[in-house]
Amino acid sequence: MPASSSEAVRVAVLADSDTRWKWGALTARRITSPDAGPTGSGPAGSAPEPTGFVLRGRATPTARQLAETGASTAAPREVTGAEFLREVRDAEARGERYDVVVLALVGGTVRAVLQGLADLGLDRRPVIVTGYVGVVYEKLADGLLLRHGADVVLANSRHDADRFRAVYEGVGAGAESVVEAALPFLGGAPHRPEAGRDTLVFAAQPSVPVTRTERAYVLERLVRHARLHPEREVLLKLRSKPGEHTTHLEEHPYQRLVRELDPPANFRLVYGHMGEVLDRTDLLVTVSSTAALEALHRRIPTAILTDCGVREVNGNHHFIGSGLLTSFDRLDRGEVPEPDEEWLSRQGVAAGGSYDSAFDAARERVAKLLALPELPPIDPYYTAETAPGYLPGILARHRLDVTAPPVRDSGLRRIVREAARGAYRHGVQRVAPVVRRLGEL
């Protein structure tokens, strides 16, 4: 039986990085409680805390990264995919069934977990919700079709909702799961200039731009801008410290590249919760970070760089028509772009106060599904019939065998795992680039 209206809905969130944990935890609140407002510098609203899990893998976030998201007061538990499925199964046996499961994962992992949940044979399966943590600028069709089968596929804007439905309907799959919503972490106080404050923040991304030459160029231009404008504070906002990973691997960290420069005193590297950094930002500059949408929502002047090209690989092609595309040369001259209001509205930001109701449709769909006497079987697009040359590889990579006995996670095992993870990151960040350079000689 579904949870009654007088009972709190039990929600589990499974994420595979710090940014997806932030999206998943905040989404869980927004879709289950009308009182859960947007976040500014921390969790908001009176929605119950979801039970959190993060997948053990190459991008498993550290405790510092999880705390910096400001998404939850309770730290999520690190698990394998099989351990998560086992917890869902055992929770039902304990009489503590999860009513909703939010999958804040990459597409292939979503498809594997959907298969695992379908194979559990639960008396009543949870409502399954998934979506994207930010701008969808690559692998649109593949990512969406891997997510098909979830009960709710959240779109962060009207623009995305139209694209998502077009993909599903175009392949003959049902599109009723697509629900227009918004990014759950938009919020904070509107921008108000302060006398004597002039702060430019560059929101860095781990893999955009990707090459060492392009990243060194961006860093050099930031430092040059700081020298040209000594009255302006220039902050390079970083998402991870050396040795940490987020959603994407970072082969050329800015922290290493800056050692080759001699930046002025008004240039600094900063970490921390993005909402708190935006509280003191007067101009947000980025290539294509989701932080741009957060800044635009708060009416903070925002610039999207074209210096490394307007290219799909950079993600800044998403901002075509926004009025925000510009270059360092123009910023150096003091020019600040003006956003196109219609573009903003279609992207779900600063849309005339409509953000307050952005999750109403999602809450309504989840409530209707919870009220059903029985949920329909999970019915994904990718099956052994539609993708026999693709799906088996996706499922095999995740090895979600809940029948295998769980491995006890002793203190020694955790130490060994952290050492292995550190060795892997060292190989990616230090050894691999050297090997590639040698290969180019």
Describe, in short, the structure shown.
The protein has helices at residues 18-32, 63-69, 81-93, 107-119, 140-147, 158-170, 212-228, 254-257, 274-278, 291-297, 328-332, 341-346, 360-371, 391-398, 411-439, and strands at 11-15, 51-55, 77-79, 100-104, 127-130, 152-155, 178-180, 199-203, 233-237, 267-270, 283-286, 302-305, 325-326. By secondary structure, it is α/β, with parallel strands linked by helices.
Please give a structural write-up.
The protein is α/β, with parallel strands linked by helices. The chain is built from 15 helices and 13 strands. It has helices at residues 18-32, 63-69, 81-93, 107-119, 140-147, 158-170, 212-228, 254-257, 274-278, 291-297, 328-332, 341-346, 360-371, 391-398, 411-439, and strands at 11-15, 51-55, 77-79, 100-104, 127-130, 152-155, 178-180, 199-203, 233-237, 267-270, 283-286, 302-305, 325-326. Strands 3-2-1-4-5-6-7 form a seven-stranded parallel sheet, sandwiched between helices. A six-stranded parallel sheet has the order 10-9-8-11-12-13, with helices on both faces. Helix 7 (212-228) links the parallel strand 8 (199-203) and strand 9 (233-237). The longest helix has 29 residues, at 411-439. The protein is globular and about 65 Å long. 41% of the residues are buried. The model is unreliable at 1-6, 39-45 and 436-441 (pLDDT under 50).
